[in-house]
Amino acid sequence: MPIPVITVAQMREWEKATWASGQTEQAVIRRAGQAVARKAEALTRAGDRILVLAGKGHNGDDAMVAAESITGRQVATLRVTDPEAAGNQLERLVQPPPALIVDGLFGIGLNRPLSEAWNRLIERINRLNAPILAVDVPSGLNADTGLPLGEPIRASHTLTLGAVKQGLLKASAWPFVGRLDVAADIGLAEYRFQTELAWTTPEDFVGWPPVRPVAAHKGSFGHLVIVAGSLGYHGAAVLAARGAQRAQPGLITLITAPEVYAPVAAQLQAVMVRPWRPGMMLPANCTGLVVGPGLAVEDLPEFVKQFTVQMWRQAQMPMLVDASALVWLRELTEPVPHLRVVTPHPGEAGRLLGWSSAAVQEDRPGALRALSQQLGDCYVVLKGYQTLIGRGRETLYINSSGNPRLAQGGSGDVLAGYLGGWLAQPELQRSPLQALRYGVWQHGATADVLERQRPNWTVEDLVEQLGAASPVDR
């Protein structure tokens, strides 16, 4: 199930409830340390050198258990109580440089600025340019606000324990957190607090999408229509269509600009392609609509914009709007009784809201809720690092998959088509939030699979493998 995003105070209450249930701190520390050990092993190879830095609090205790539990690696441990004395020992322990440093210096209890001695030590650690695995929170970072308390550890990975601390999701924390993962099963009692944010886990999608009936036919899985592509941007239409194919709706029709019809149609086989024209209508059996990829030319025919607005207001099937078409929705504030989805990046969300991109990044949940409310309580997929999914006053879900190599032209076009392919399927329209969360997770998880295979993968590779990531194997 999704993992809650909580404050430090809520974490302390959770711990108290756990100790009251009969579980011991020592047992939880042992399981947390073992989780850190497994993560350290996953980030290194057999025989690699790992340096474990352990402070004097429980965060340090977790790190010490990790050091004892790591197998198949050369492990050196430095217990740090005096940062000046530790600096001299550090020089000896980093020759040769370790393959990984485990940061267990400070945990979530840190709430005051670091001393100059601590700042100098952490700065020295960061200058080593070695991969760093932070235990629970990068040392020197406020786990509630995400603000530095001096010179924080610049982790390449953070394994937070039990639940996600809200400060780790702040834009100010991103340069220090690196890749964020969660060790949820560390022996704590069942979590009973209410939270507005939840962290998606691969296990959320075990058994989803549902198995297709053996007697099903293409009519069982819907007909997606995509309006996409214009002169100079016809590739976006192709990528959106191919992304949609990976979700396997029964039929896909792509409507594109007449001037790019030939190159678009030449690249697609199973997708039906036709040029747009004034008065265009949707097929009678259409069950889903995507508008936006590659509609980036300012002199698009007015009837394309009018069609988009009319469909947003009147179409009874799910509709997803992406990219340049989003600006056409700016004045459409009335509630719509049918499923509507927008998929902006921070800049597009900011333009719709009248906010700067930086303001959107500073308060992504607030931006998503404001945009959803502005557009009639539609679903919003706010793209970017830790893509956020949800609407209105409901729980918002943070995506846990993906990596920086998704920052390629065409990646968003693939996602728009892929999400549309799921939403067009009548059976899946009963759980649209699950479909959106799964599509976003699978898009990122496929990028993670590609990253492990080779670092120079392209968006075409992403389309080729999209949907192949397994929740069970991660």
Our count of domains comes out at 2
Tell me the CATH architecture of the largest domain.
Answer: 3-Layer(aba) Sandwich
CATH topology description of the largest domain = UDP-N-acetylmuramoyl-L-alanine:D-glutamate ligase
Strands in their spatial order, largest beta sheet: 7-1-9-18-17-16-15-14-13-10-11-12
**What is the global morphology?**
elongated
Query: CATH homologous superfamily name of the largest domain?
Result: Ribokinase
CATH class category name of the largest domain: Alpha Beta
- Regarding quaternary structure, what we see is single chain
Strand content: 15-25%
Q: Please give the largest β-sheet.
A: 12 strands, mixed
Structure classification: alpha/beta
Can you walk me through this structure?
- With 474 residues, this protein is α/β, with parallel strands linked by helices.
- The chain has 2 domains: 3-198, Rossmann fold, CATH 3.40.50.10260; 218-465, UDP-N-acetylmuramoyl-L-alanine:D-glutamate ligase (3-Layer(aba) Sandwich).
- 36% of the residues lie in helices and 16% in strands.
- The chain contains 15 helices and 18 strands.
- The chain has helices at residues 8-20, 25-42, 58-69, 83-93, 116-127, 174-177, 234-247, 261-266, 302-314, 346-353, 357-362, 364-374, 411-423, 432-453, 459-465, and strands at 3-6, 49-54, 74-79, 100-104, 132-135, 157-161, 164-165, 179-183, 197-199, 223-227, 251-256, 272-275, 288-291, 319-322, 340-343, 379-382, 388-390, 396-398.
- The protein has a 12-stranded mixed beta sheet, sandwiched between helices. It has a 6-stranded parallel beta sheet with strand order 3-2-4-5-6-8, with helices on both faces.
- Helix 2 packs across helix 3, helix 7 (234-247) packs across helix 13 (411-423) and helix 13 packs antiparallel against helix 14.
- The longest helix has 22 residues, at 432-453.
- The two termini are 15 Å apart.
